[in-house]
Design brief:
The structure is a homodimer.
Chain A: E1 2-6, H1 12-20, E2 25-29, H2 32-40, E3 46-53, E4 57-58, H3 60-68, E5 72-80, E6 84-87, E7 96-99, H4 101-106, H5 108-114, E8 119-122, H6 126-135, E9 139-143, H7 145-150, E10 154-157, E11 167-174, E12 185-192, H8 198-208, E13 213-220, E14 228-235, H9 241-253, E15 254-263
Parallel strand pairs in A: 1-2, 1-3, 7-8, 7-9
Antiparallel strand pairs in A: 3-4, 3-11, 5-11, 6-9, 6-10, 12-14, 12-15, 13-14
Chain lengths: 268, 268
């Protein structure tokens, strides 16, 4: 079995992939998009990619790719994220900070407070940020302790996330639909017809059948300006009668419906 | 009157600010957060910042800042975004591309097709990207024609956005609440109480009073993990009886309510 992750090595995705699939061969991909394509094309059996951080919010590329590509969610995993501030330069010499967009979002208050004038350079992953900081004087990175070791960087400060309980939710992507039996969460995505109250009418079906909607998130449809797709998470799985009935009714009010899968959280 | 924008010079925010306030003095800020703080502290009268792109989706920093800071929306403006591919190097020598995260999101298919192996470096604005590309050989930028002129870069390709009708919605931020009279849009943000169906119960008030909800978007509350704030746009203004009644009922089901303002779109 081969498992893809958002690389380079020592990224948080790598850490999550190690914890979920300790004994499988791992392969780093340069972007979320490439990690998902590799699953679609059977180059790997699964890919482990971030979908949402508790402070920074959704990883929007992941949401968009789940719609565009023929893949499904087969499980999820929560990883505590403890960002550290890494550099081989002196604290007061640092004028440039590398991180992933989410690293900046999750440490926004800390940066404004400590380095309000630093140039912030967003790169594809925190491990890439660590690598770039290693190569450049007077630069630092916001990344993991794992990356500090991997790239021989000094930890200048620990626990710099604005929220002390910062976590990222990862999903395991597969090109086959899960068996829903026994799973406790279902994710769907849909667009609504262009008429007033259409979204309300669509989600009213959950209320009617007693289905608990735990999350709703919108993204551009990428088909028509200012038209949206809605990503909804539900408690339960698609073997349950009330969920099946609600989804059937929902589809009368919506278009472009996709069931992303029923799945559970992996505990390690 | 002084108007702030997300800089540096020649950014799309600068272009929007020029169109909305052609005769006022302009001041560039290094981040959305600084542009909003300047309004809060009365250093500028207004700031013009992006809130949403038709392809890339919400500018999440803007949403978070509208909650955290004591500011309001006083108008909105739609700017067509025509990204171009800029460099002073040869097409086949380019191995690094600078842009804003939204520039990458809006040209994702084009990049995957033309430069699948290029290193993508996200910076704070497309105009910053143009400046960095000007300074570095074999690099390119995804930015505006306005930035091409400003930084003396050659346009290697035009119209590279995945959607040919790509637009960004900008908001004008003020530290005073607008008079709602005559305005056609109202934006609010709220959290819901921690019980099943709470979000549904909250937005049911719009249905009951015939208020059209045109958008719903969620963001982390930044107070508790996996708890959300919902940003909702409504047709109409807060002098209308049905909107007042719906908002009153909504507040019985929600917490942390903020009225971001009733406002209209500026046409130029």
């Amino acid at each position: 079995m081969r498992v893809g992750f958002l690389g380079p090595k020592a990224s948080y995705s790598h850490e999550a992939a190690q914890k979920i699939f300790p004994s499988f061969e791992k392969k780093a991909f340069d972007s979320i998009s490439l990690a998902i394509s590799a699953v679609e094309k059977n180059e790997v059996d699964y890919s482990v990619i971030p979908i949402e951080n508790s402070t920074g919010g959704s990883i929007t590329v992941t949401l968009d790719e789940l719609v565009e590509k023929n893949v499904f969610i087969s499980s999820e995993f929560l990883l505590p994220i403890n960002h550290v501030f890494l550099s081989n330069s002196k604290k007061n010499k640092i004028d440039k900070i590398y991180s992933h967009a989410q690293g900046f979002a999750q440490c926004r208050n800390w940066i404004e407070n400590k380095y309000p004038k630093a140039e912030l350079i967003e790169v594809q992953s925190t491990s890439k940020a660590a690598q770039l900081s290693f190569e450049e004087e007077n630069s630092a990175a916001i990344a993991s302790e794992f990356a500090a070791k991997e790239f021989s960087l000094t930890i200048l400060e620990k626990n710099i996330s604005d929220s002390k309980s910062n976590e990222t939710r990862f999903v395991v992507i597969s090109n086959k639909e899960n068996s829903p039996q026994g799973k406790n969460k279902t994710s769907i995505v849909f667009g609504v017809k262009d008429k007033p109250g259409a979204l309300f009418d669509a989600i009213e079906s959950f209320k009617r059948f007693g289905v608990n909607m735990t999350k709703i998130e919108s993204r551009p449809s990428r088909k028509k300006n200012w038209e949206y797709l809605f990503f909804v998470d539900l408690d339960g799985n698609t073997t349950q009668k009330n969920i099946l009935s609600a989804l059937k009714e929902l589809q009368e009010h919506c278009k472009d419906f996709k069931n992303l899968g029923s799945y559970s959280r992996v505990k390690t």
